[in-house]
Structure formats: structure tokens, C-alpha cells
Design a protein that fits this description.
The structure is a single chain. By secondary structure, the protein is an alpha+beta fold. The chain folds into 2 domains: 71 residues, 434 Repressor (Amino-terminal Domain) (Orthogonal Bundle), CATH 1.10.260.40; 182 residues, Umud Fragment, subunit A (Ribbon). The protein contains 11 helices and 11 strands. Strands 4-3-5-6-11-7-8-9-10 form a 9-stranded mixed beta sheet.
């Protein structure tokens, strides 16, 4: 039997840690403030669906809510549930009848990080670390060793977030090589924003691209670079392990002047034309 008084107290402590009012805390959970008030007071037991929604929205573990274990960010719960990308077409062998894609992970991974009342704690993956992500993302020790970025913004306490250092210039001039972005884990196809930048994880690594949903038409996501010199391509759903959406650019050390960059390109073009003229003469 659920300890509704204990669970209610832990939910209240969690809410107070986010500095949200009962009404604000209840909105993403789909319940009324009055129901949350009854739960926090121990007068009403939360449903399993509500507990799952709290875990998903506020980065807390099931162990904490049910058993009062240390408050940890549950990083693997959404992954454990599977990435809900697909449609219900039976001819696609990757997708089951419920329209879900194959399982992404076989065990949950929990971040041993406590977000305080003032800031969200976000693990950081630089270029070197992200290179080995697909081989280690199911490993608890991998997450425990990551450095943490703390950001005093409440929206980063909801959902699963990581900070990623961009590798390469495929998204320039929007994102340059070694810029830092904050990613939010995407659980279902409805959360993919058409034309927005996402990080697509496959066995080959992490690709940061603009995403266009072509699941119904071709069983794939169309990935486009902002760099006009790089071609757009399709990635089959069968090859995709995870999808993360870029929420914002966190850090950039590439303070490039667009005007200066254009001037440099024009100068380079002029020199090439001069060289060509000399060859023709």
C-alpha cells in the first residue's frame, strides 16, 4: 500500500525546491491546484500516472517519491520507456502496433545530481566525451563522471537536459564549431519541432541538424544543415537511438563579425579572380 502521507510530503518538498506555486506546479501534470493540495497534505493518494508525470516533468526519481531515497535526477526513465517516434504502419518492421519505435535502453540511468532551489543542474558533454556517447550512455558511471553546469532558470528543471559542445561547422552560421547548446530529451514524435535544430543520436554518433519529420512518407527524419555546402539527407527511424531538441545556445567563443566574414569572402574571391586572369593571359 502506498504511503500517501510520505509521498505527499516528498512531492511538497520537491515543489518548494522548484519555487513554484501549487498552481504552477500542477499545470504540466494536468491536475488542479486543489488536487495537488490534497496530495501534499497526505489526504489523497497520487495515481501512478501522476507519479510518472512528476518524474518526467521535474527530473526526480521514482525511488525518491515512493521510498524517500536521496533526491536524484532520474535521467533514464524516459529512455527506459522507449522513444515514441513511429506511426502505426504495419509494413515498417521497426514499429510495433502501438506505433512506438524500438527500445532505446535496457536499464535506467540516474544522475547523482541535486538541483537546488535557485538553479538547474545540467550535465556537460564536450566534443571528446560526446564522441563516445553511444557506447556509454547506458552506463551509470559515464553520467556520474560528467561535469555539471548550473543555470538559474526554472524551465531547465523540467524534462531531461544535457549541455553539448557542437562538433564541426555543419550548422554555421547558426552554430559554430565548439559552441555549447542545451538539449532537451524528446520522448515522442509530437515533441519534434518541424524545422528546429535537434541532436540525432545513432550508432555512428551525434548529428546536430534541423529536423523535418518524414516518418509517414519515408519512415525517416530529414536532416538539414544550415551550412549550404552540406547536403540534406534522411536518417531511417531504425537507425535512431535518441532525439534531443536544442533549447538554446549556452556558450560561444566564436565571436565572428558577419560583416567582416563577408568582407573576407569577397577579398578571397577577388584574389581567385586575379589568379585566374593571370593564367588566362
Amino acid at each position: 500500500m502506498l504511503d500517501k502521507k510520505g509521498i505527499g510530503e516528498r512531492i511538497k518538498n520537491l515543489r518548494l525546491g522548484t519555487t513554484l506555486t501549487q498552481e504552477e506546479f500542477a499545470i504540466p501534470l494536468g491536475i488542479k491546484r486543489s488536487a495537488l493540495s490534497q496530495i501534499e497534505a497526505g489526504n489523497l493518494s497520487p495515481s501512478l500516472e501522476l507519479v510518472s508525470a512528476i518524474v518526467s516533468n521535474y527530473n526526480v526519481s521514482y525511488e525518491y517519491l515512493f521510498e524517500g531515497r536521496s533526491l536524484k535526477t532520474n535521467f533514464g526513465a524516459a529512455i527506459e520507456e522507449g522513444f515514441k517516434l513511429g506511426d502505426d504502419r504495419e509494413e515498417n518492421p521497426v514499429l510495433d502496433k502501438a506505433g512506438f519505435s524500438q527500445r532505446l535502453a535496457h536499464k535506467p540511468v540516474t544522475l547523482n545530481i541535486v538541483a537546488d532551489a535557485e538553479s538547474a543542474a545540467i550535465p556537460m558533454m564536450d566534443v571528446d566525451i560526446s564522441t563516445g556517447y553511444t557506447a556509454h550512455y547506458k552506463d551509470q558511471n559515464f553520467w556520474d563522471r560528467l561535469p555539471v553546469m548550473r543555470i538559474p532558470m526554472q524551465q531547465f528543471k523540467r524534462g531531461l537536459h544535457v549541455a553539448l559542445q557542437v562538433n564541426g561547422d555543419s550548422m554555421s552560421p547558426t552554430l559554430y564549431n565548439h559552441d555549447w547548446v542545451i538539449l532537451r530529451y524528446v520522448e515522442k514524435k509530437e515533441d519534434i519541432k518541424e524545422g528546429y535544430i535537434h541532436a540525432i543520436v545513432t550508432s555512428d554518433g551525434i548529428a546536430v541538424k534541423r529536423v523535418f519529420n518524414r516518418i509517414k512518407e519515408r519512415g525517416s527524419l530529414s536532416l538539414k544543415s544550415d551550412n549550404e555546402g552540406i547536403a540534406t539527407y534522411d536518417e531511417k527511424i531504425a537507425n535512431i537511438l535518441q532525439v534531443w531538441r536544442v533549447e538554446c545556445k549556452a556558450l560561444s567563443f566564436n565571436l565572428i563579425s558577419v560583416k567582416q566574414d563577408l568582407h573576407t569572402r569577397i577579398s578571397s574571391l577577388e584574389l581567385k579572380m586575379m589568379d585566374l586572369e593571370k593564367k588566362l593571359l
